[in-house]
Amino acid sequence: MKDQKFSSLLKKATESRLFLPILALAIILLFDALFIPNFFAIQVRNGDLYGRIIDIARNASTVMVLSLGMTLVIATGGIDLSVGAVMAIAASVAAIMMNPVIIGLELPPDLMKFINDPNFTYSPLWEVILVTLVVATICGVWNGLLVAYMRIQAMVATLILMIAGRGIAQLITNGVRIQIFYKPYAFIGQGWVLLPFSLYIVLFLYIITWLLTRKTAIGMFIESVGINARASFFSGINEKRIKMLVYTFCGFCAGVAGLIASSNIKTSDANNIGDTIELDAILSVVIGGTSMAGGRFSLLASLIGAIVMQAITTSMYALGVPAFALKAIKGLVVVFVILLYSEPIRVFIRKLTSRKEVRS
Amino acid sequence: MNTKLTQYINKNRQFIPITVTALLAVIAYAVGAMLYPSMRNPQVFFNIFRNNSYLLVSAVGMTLVVLTGGIDLSVSGMIALTSVVTAALLREDWNAWLVIILVLVMGMALGAIMGFFIAYLKAQPWIATLAGMWFTRGMCFFITDNAIAISNRTFDLISRTRIYIPIWMEISQAQSKAPPYISIPVVVSFVILIAGILIAKYTRFGRTIYAIGGNEGRNEQSARLMGLPVNKTKVLVYTLNGFCSALAGILFSIFVTSGHGLYANGLEMDAIASVVMGGTMLTGGSGYVLGTLFGVFILGLTQTLIQFNGSLSSWWTKIVIGLLTLIFIGVQSLILHRKGHRDRGKNLTGEALQQFKRRRFLKAAGISLAVLVIFSWMLYPKLNLGSQSSPTQVSIRCTWLPYRQEQAAELVAKGAVIVYERNGGPNCIDELYAIYPDGLIVGDLNYGESTIEKQITVEEVDLLLAGINDYGWFTDELYDTWHTPCGQCYGYYLTVVDGGIEKTVKGVDGGTDAPFLYWQIISLVKGVIPKFGVD
Q1: Among A54, A183, B43, B520, which is most exposed with the fewest C-beta within 10 angstroms?
Q2: pLDDT digit string, tens, across residues A205-247
Q3: Is B375 on the interface with A (CB under 8 A)?
Q4: What is the DSSP string of B116-178?
Q5: Is B337 near chain A, with CB under 8 Å?
Q6: Is there a single domain that holds both residue A228 and residue A330?
Q7: What pLDDT was estimated at residue B380?
Q8: For residue A189, is it within any domain?
């Protein structure tokens, strides 16, 4: 009796969407615990917590934010390749608003001497954040217009902004890498309130998104559009508006990620900020088990997927694998994920489990 | 008459995208030649092919992949890996031909593996090839961290050989001008192009490709039911593209005469953009390999026009290409959806039909007008149209002045703490600055053509040195990434002496291979030095 209960519980756990990502994370952390000394050590400095584990979460925060938006986009059966470029645009806008001197804008001479001052900013911080997010959201609206109303394939439509976006970002800053000296801005990515501040941003965004998708009908609408856009249209869902919404939200998330990334490295670097990060974001959604064909999604699983990616990266760094060579290992991870989710392997596993049931 | 024309257009609708592309290419070149007289030099025309031969090769392979409804993102990684493997093997004195064959086999093998994943394990094409991209790029750095220069006789010969064009040669001789020429990579790329056209059009394999990709990728099922070898064809297509990527990698390493793991970053996007501009549907099943030639040509032409304009910065290339991609995709989706639209209007009659048509027309016109207005508003002040006075670019590449190593060493011996040289750019300048510990900065342009001096405080020099140190100048994080710069790019040489240690790091902008902090340091130094006013 007890055994049966346990097995049914086990079955429930293995069938949960969170099972695979959490299992992957557990395997990686176990590997770290065995091979890397002091991996789980956490120190307290000035009342804040530091350590490798916290580093993983902090470095994953950009991809986590992106994966929230990306999950919804993929759930509608689409894809957004432009998030990296939108991040670069957001970073450029933020930097130019705080430090417009560098592109040759004339400032009153009494302001000129402050440009290296960590307390100086040309526009107030709230304005910087607001404008940046609005610009990023407009980028999302653009993608949404192309996909929903002009009926262009999502991959192609977002490819346009992916190609042009970095050019636009460089256009904004006139091709200059602008250094950001303003200290309160750096707090977004580098601040700590017991835990890294960026994690609170992720948490806040996650709660908002969760409430919006799971406590209203929007989440269900998104899933139904992903499963069959035509059928949902006939059942009275405005699929165009839903698509518009998710791309807009994805743009917004990319804006937030751009803010975090640029404050982390204290520069706006149109060429390098968010380079190939769209692939990381998509991959973390895939690890989280959301089908690329659209349909059911889990926000939490995507977040865990992002942490899995970062955990692999950090453990490889700890083992001394050089940064660029890491990509080869990431590639192998992708291969593994493909194998895990591929049809033949799934059939094989299903056969395996069903045989067991028959036997028992 | 009108109906006849409409009928004709309807009948040949599949040729519309390719015709539009070809027309655009011709018009753009004509406009360019009108605005910039030096573009009338036939060599400029052939240079477009010379500078993009590797892109053409990989775009031809990409076209076949896209025709099956798939996509291959691994192209750029494959090119980088090929260049590194080639350079590394040539450094070990292997036979050049053996290396080329080996590398091609490697490319085909990797392509076949990706094809297997896509065809038999039903992986999404882009995710499988993404894994391929990461894997290949990562493997480059398991081989070497630095750029390896290629100095091999065969490769030298291939890169230096000039092939003159027979008819033009006589014309030029009559006008006593230098005859235009192409290089061996151009010939290779055209051979691949013709092979691609023949394969797509006249082989069973090629027709199967079209059959798989048709109807927005939904045709795969029908192709299977027709008894076509779908899986085998898919694997073969990716193998073929692996071959093309490897060949493109070889051409690329001939072009830059070196190998490095960060080369060709983002090239797959250029290849995809040229395929789309060539009129091939990204959904598959429709398009021509020949169109890809025009796509590549437009891409190269955009770069050339921006270089000739002189006042437009390099990032305009990206914006223009993004916009062109948008336009072509717009044309495609119009063709694709026209049928559906017409059906929608079918039930309407009289007034309602008129209204429907008018609204549709207004919608399309409004959107295209808005895009056009925004774009021209952005571009207009930069276009530099009337001013013929700035013959900025006669040749696309300037002759590269060597690094003034001895002069730099001399300045260090004199007590300079920072020696900074910037070399190249659109105007082929060569500036050398020395910063001394007492705050004196001496700059020299083009071997003493003009000099400039500036005095800053001792504290500022200390601050600068501290900043450079903070970025980890003397750590392994900052390393040489020298390769021959692109025509418009700058090469940087920075020597810093601090605490008795001297270190020089070279880098080239325009690529993304140099360490990120290197540019931070360069911008620190740029912040204090006086400027000559030429760029």
Answers
A1: A183
A2: 999 999 999 999 999 999 999 998 888 889 889 999 999 999 9
A3: no
A4: HHHHTS---HHHHHHHHHHHHHHHHHHH-SS-EE---HHHHHHHH--EE-HHHHHHHHHTT-P
A5: yes
A6: no
A7: 59
A8: yes
Q: What is the pLDDT of residue B382?
A: 53
Write down which residue in A268, A286, A301 finishes a domain.
A301
Number of domains in chain B: 2
Minimum distance, in Å, between the CA of residue A95 and any CA atom of chain B: 15
Position A235 in a domain: yes
Q: Are residues A268 and A122 in the same domain?
A: yes
Cα B424 to the chain's mean position, in Å? 20
Q: How far away is chain B from the Cα of A218, in angstroms, using its nearest Cα?
A: 27
pLDDT tens across B212-240, in order? 887 655 678 888 888 889 999 999 999 99
pTM of the predicted model as reported, rounded to 2 decimal places: 0.74
pLDDT of residue B3: 73
**Which residue from A233, A124, A138, A139 is spatially nearest to A182, judged by alpha carbons?**
A124
- Residue A273: alpha-carbon gap to chain centroid: 13
- Tell me which chain B residues have a C-beta less than 8 angstroms from the C-beta of A345: 121
Secondary element (H or E) of residue B442 = strand B440-445
Q: Are residues A138 and A246 in the same domain?
A: yes
Domain that holds residue B117: 16-334
Cβ contact B138–A175 (<8 Å) = no
* Number of separate helices (H) and strands (E) present in chain A: 16, 6
| Residues A286, A145 within the same domain | yes
Average pLDDT over chain A, rounded to whole? 84
Nearest CA to CA, how far is A331 from chain B (Å)?
A: 4
Q: For residue A337, give its domain range.
A: 326-360
Q: Are residue B326 and residue B426 in the same domain, yes or no? A: no
Per-residue pLDDT band at B393 (split at 50, 70, 90): very low
Nearest to B127 among A150, A286, A328 (CB): A286
CB contacts, 8 Å: B512 with chain A: 271-272, 275
What is the chain A residue with the closest CA to B121?
A: A342
From the list A157, A322, A342, the residue facing B145 with the nearest CB is A322
B117 interfaces chain A, CB cutoff of 8 Å: yes
B window 304-323, beta carbon within 8 A of A = 313-319, 321-323
Residue B8 has pLDDT above 60, yes or no: yes
Query: Does one domain contain both A231 and A359?
Result: no
Query: pLDDT band at residue A110, thresholds of 50, 70 and 90?
Result: low
Distance from CA of A178 to the nearest CA of B (A): 9
| Number of CB pairs, chain A paired with chain B, less than 8 A apart | 150
Buried-state track B232-257, b at ≥16 Cβ within 10 A, e below 16: ebbbbbbbbbbbbbbbbbbbbbbbbb
**In terms of domains, do A216 and A348 share one?**
no
Contact of B533 with chain A, judged by CB distance below 8 Å, is answered with: no
Residue-wise pLDDT for B106-163, tens only, equals 999 999 999 999 998 888 887 888 889 889 988 998 888 888 888 888 888 888 888 8
A-chain residue closest to B260, CA distance: A324
A197, A335: one domain: no
Say yes or no: A70 and A142 in one domain: yes
Q: What would the pLDDT profile of A332-357 be if each residue is shown by its tens digit?
A: 888 888 787 777 777 877 777 776 65
Extract the runs of DSSP E, i.e. beta strands, from chain A.
42-45, 48-51, 178-179, 192-193, 195-196, 267-268
